[in-house]
């Protein structure tokens, strides 16, 4: 039987427990999962590409079938390069649905053989977003229960250095 290969794309600025929840669950279902970190984004990013990669690697190193790669192209082109035919996305709330639908239809148009598969984010993590976490940390709020320990440390340090 052909082994299943999935990619999970995102900016991961920074990776949160919400992302990790999706990654762990995907790693139980697919043979291989590649976390695809987009190098540049039209969002203003807090962490450098190296920092984002290192944090993602650190918090997923115990997942033997998960690897981390960078890409700077269309997600579908990267998936083809990786010989992956599954795109993983997380759905947190109804508000994600419309955006995800547009993304999926566009990706289907670009690469009809690549399937998008959605995971409902665990309920207790469904309100998290990377920007919200950064905003709360910026004002000195505690977000340690929303982030892996090493990510929280990196965020606190980053915010101190920004002052
Ligand atoms: N738990 C917690 N947060 C989550 C989450 C989850 N399960 N799922 C999504 N999020 C957050 C992300 O952290 C992000 O937060 P932010 O906006 O505050 O940074 C937000 O929800 C949106 O996530 P996502 O849709 O994954 O956006 P992204 O910026 O991380 O990634 C790409 C978007 C990279 C997938 C998309 O821009 C892309 O495919 N780019 C490549 C170019 C391309 O192919 N373009 C055509 C697309 S059709």
Question: Your description of this structure?
Answer:
The chain has six helices and five strands; from the N terminus they run βαβαβαβαβαα. Strands 3-2-1-4-5 form a five-stranded parallel beta sheet, with helices on both faces. It starts with a strand and ends with a helix. The chain has a single domain, classed as Rossmann fold, CATH 3.40.50. It is α/β, with parallel strands linked by helices and 163 residues long. It is 44% helix and 19% strand. Coenzyme A (COA) binds next to strand 1, helix 1, helix 4 and helix 5. Homohexamer. Belongs to the bacterial CoaD family. Pathway: Cofactor biosynthesis; coenzyme A biosynthesis; CoA from (R)-pantothenate: step 4/5. This is Phosphopantetheine adenylyltransferase.
Low-pLDDT residue intervals, each spanning 5 or more residues: none
- Rounded average pLDDT: 95
Helix content bin: 40-55%
Which shape, going by the Cα principal axes?
globular
What is the name of the CATH architecture?
A: 3-Layer(aba) Sandwich
Order of helices and strands: EHEHEHEHEHH
CATH superfamily: HUPs
Bound small molecules, deduplicated: coenzyme A
Q: State the end-to-end distance.
A: 54 Å
CATH domain class: Alpha Beta
Major β-sheet, in short?
5 strands, parallel
User: Based on helices, strands and strand pairing, what is the structural class?
Assistant: alpha/beta
**What is the third-level CATH name, the topology?**
Rossmann fold
Subcellular location: Cytoplasm
GO molecular function: ATP binding; pantetheine-phosphate adenylyltransferase activity
Family: Belongs to the bacterial CoaD family.
Pfam families: CTP_transf_like
